[in-house]
Design goal:
By secondary structure, the protein is of the alpha+beta class. About 50% of the residues lie in helices and about 15% in strands. It starts with a strand and ends in a 14-residue tail after the last helix.
């Protein structure tokens, strides 16, 4: 038979971050523990509000199925002597609660042993849940857990009540929280303001409805839908559209139990402040939703929306309180805006000397100097015009200046954003101003990338400086510890280069920047350049697999599994490694890879036994036709001669389809060399003949390496 179960842990108000984390933890752990106990329910729902965490299990088996268990005992020679049971057999039977006659002797790989088969009765769901529930509660993890009393139980906030219902009956449970013991019951609590009394739950399946009557919506999804719908209507009433940032929505939904939208307003004069300042005050500092004009969504309206957990009948009072708060914050923003603009942005640059970037690396002003130097190196590689170079250097000088403005001091989230605004106000060129904002991009995994060349160069210079400097001090990221976000910076460098199709030699940049850093900071780690190259190769590998969807073995083939020199080719031309990876994935998907794989891979494996340089392509330099013994060798040689110009053209023009076509054309000739009527034994006894044949194979391997190391490809990936 099936039963239903409800667990509700009632608490003081939980942090929003813990509510969302607890839901995810329980979603995986509860399901796993029930599956392991073989009483998985038909449906499982994790419900939560700021004052409660709940698990609702419907269609739960009321007991485990009975099962037969086979238990191995002592060796037969120790269990029986002269056909009679020994103390070992008697003790084993007693331990397993069976008669001696139930014991069986069987052959195993290690000889004869005694076995017994037992019928194990399934445990009831009540017994299993009594064991599991304390584990579900006690194993939750989160920040700043505390003991709320003298007991051992640690939790985010004090636990006040416990509901545990198995169908209509209370499942007896106890939680020791120190001075008090909390016993399970069917009594929950309603909304603090709208229904401050208790709520009796008759059955698990009625849980959500019972609490809705007490003004508590336990479903996160239902609360979120209610917020979005109410916000939409409230904005429409004033001719607007509610701007609901997903992160903010996810936070406020875990801060309330019965959502109601309250609309407030502010003086239109505040709209003269940059919109980013207004929305930052609303979203980041006050958790308000901005309202944009339905006719022009780039324009803000003088309204805001808040999600209230209070009495909807008191909306006017709540609104007035919120308006007083935001009026003061916007007044601060207007003061900072007016005050900061009294002097050009450039005048703030020298003040960066008072801001420390990192203790051993000095001030942000020194970082700005390094950014300018690195930007110059990048500009040289890109062969930019003098005019473009001048804009790059100007942006490098100003890119951090807004850090010492009053606005950014008060609202750090606006760094770069305000730099662009102040640069425009100071009369700087549009691309220079835009670059100040763009050089912080991307700010996260899903953020936009810089679109102007000046912004791209400064973004690369800033991130490369951080990477080289922090690595140079030996502060490498380890495990989940990455306080300077170096992985994100390296990912950004690669992504910007790929997105903008920048023809940069990253390896040369790393060499130059590392050498300069080591000159200025003599205590820099000795293998700085190697550490950086390895780090970037790891990031390239991750980005190709995770972001570009390239199969792992194709990525290995492009980067080279055991060839450092081949791997470093990726850093000298990141565009090429991107294109080769994507092309390999394409020809795997359309089947062209299969047509050449066996031939090229077989050649590459055997070629490892030779000593031919992996960059050699011209057969005339390394093959002696006088050593040919079979016609297949001569045909192979002539095919390689014909292949050379096609490979060189493919390499020069990055025309990899041409290379694949050429390798496809040569495949029958190579197959004849291996398996035809005139096939040869590659590993001939004559050393000169053996080397000549290995060189033929090595040349074919080298041609294919223009695209990839075929030895790293696993042909069965899509099978």
């Amino acid at each position: 038979m099936a039963c239903n179960f409800l667990l509700e842990v009632g608490t003081e108000e939980l942090p929003a971050s813990f509510v969302s984390s607890a839901i995810e933890q329980w979603r995986s752990r509860v399901e796993a523990s029930l599956t392991e106990a073989t009483i998985a329910p038909e449906t499982m729902e994790i419900l939560a509000t700021p004052r409660r965490l709940a698990v609702l299990l419907l269609g739960l088996p009321d007991k485990q199925s009975d099962r037969e268990e086979e238990i191995k005992g002592p060796p037969a020679k120790a269990a029986f002597k002269d056909g009679e049971p020994t103390k070992a057999a008697i003790g084993f039977a007693r331990k397993q609660a069976v008669e001696i006659d139930s014991l069986e002797v069987r052959d195993t790989e290690k000889g004869e042993f005694v076995f017994v088969r037992k019928q194990i009765a399934g445990r009831t769901a009540a017994d299993i849940l009594t064991e599991l529930v304390p584990q579900w509660i006690g194993n939750l993890e989160g920040k700043r857990f505390m003991r709320w009393g003298d007991g051992d139980l640690r939790f985010s906030r004090p636990i006040r009540w416990l509901v545990a219902l198995l169908d209509e009956a209370v499942l007896p449970l106890e939680l020791e929280t120190g001075a008090t013991t909390i016993n399970s019951d069917r009594v929950s609590r309603g909304h603090r303001i709208l229904h401050p009394g208790t709520v009796s739950i008759d059955r698990p399946e009625n849980y959500a409805d019972c609490l809705r009557q007490a003004y508590v919506e336990v479903s996160v999804e239902q609360r979120q839908s209610a917020i979005v719908e109410q916000a939409k209507k409230a904005a429409e009433a004033v001719g607007g559209i509610a701007e609901i940032p997903p992160d903010l929505l996810g936070e406020v939904v875990d801060l309330i139990e019965w959502p109601s939208i309250v609309r407030g307003s502010f003086d239109e004069d505040f709209l003269a402040i940059p919109a980013e300042v207004v929305t930052t005050v609303m979203v980041t500092h006050q958790r308000y939703f901005p309202v944009r004009d339905v006719k022009d969504e780039t324009q803000l309206l003088p309204y805001f929306l808040t999600v209230s957990n209070g009495d909807p009948d008191k909306a006017d009072i709540i609104s007035k309180g919120n308006e007083r708060v935001i009026r003061a914050r916007l007044a601060d923003g207007r003061f900072f805006w007016d005050s900061d603009r009294k002097q050009p942005l450039e005048t703030y640059v020298t003040k960066l000397e008072s801001v420390t970037f990192q203790e051993d690396l000095g001030s942000v002003l020194k970082k700005v100097d390094r950014i300018g130097d690195i930007a110059s190196r990048i500009a040289q590689q890109l062969s930019v015009s003098e005019a473009e170079s001048a804009k790059i250097q100007r942006a490098a000088l100003l890119c951090k200046a807004d850090l010492v403005t009053q606005m950014v001091y008060e609202f750090p989230e606006l760094q770069g954003v305000m730099g662009e605004k102040y640069a425009i106000e100071s009369g700087e060129e549009a691309e220079v101003a835009k670059a100040i904002f763009e050089h912080y991009l991307p700010r996260g995994a899903d953020d936009i990338l810089p679109q102007t060349l000046t912004g791209q160069v400064i973004a690369l210079a800033d991130k490369l400086d951080t990477l080289v400097s922090i690595f140079g001090l030996g502060m490498l990221p380890s495990g989940s510890s990455d306080p300077f976000a170096l992985r994100r910076s390296a990912n950004a460098v690669v992504s910007i280069i790929w997105d903008a199709d920048l023809s940069l030699n990253l390896q040369a940049l790393l060499q130059d920047i590392s050498a300069e850093f080591s000159r200025i900071y003599p205590k820099a780690i000795a293998d700085l350049e190697t550490q950086l190259e390895n780090f970037f190769l790891q990031r390239v590998q991750t980005l190709l697999q995770d972001d570009r969807g390239i199969d792992y073995d194709l990525v290995n083939a492009v980067l080279g599994e055991d060839d450092r020199e081949y791997a470093e080719r990726a850093l000298t031309d990141l565009l090429d490694v991107r294109d080769r990876s994507q092309f390999l994935q394409q020809i795997r998907n359309d089947g062209r890879l299969d047509t050449i794989y066996e031939t090229v891979n077989r050649s590459a494996r055997l070629a490892k036994q030779g000593d031919l340089d992996t960059v050699q392509l011209d057969p005339k330099n390394v093959i002696d036709p006088d050593l040919f013994e079979k016609s297949s060798e001569g045909e192979f040689y002539e095919a390689l001669v014909a292949l050379l110009p096609r490979t060189e053209a493919a390499k020069r023009d990055r025309d990899y389809p041409q290379l694949i076509a050429a390798l496809t054309d040569i495949s029958p000739t190579v197959s004849e060399f291996f398996d035809g009527e005139n096939s040869v034994l590659v590993m001939a006894e004559d050393g000169r003949v053996r080397r000549n044949r290995l060189n033929l194979l090595g040349l074919l391997r080298n041609h294919s390496r223009i695209l990839a190391d075929f030895g790293a490809i696993v042909i069965s990936t899509n099978n």
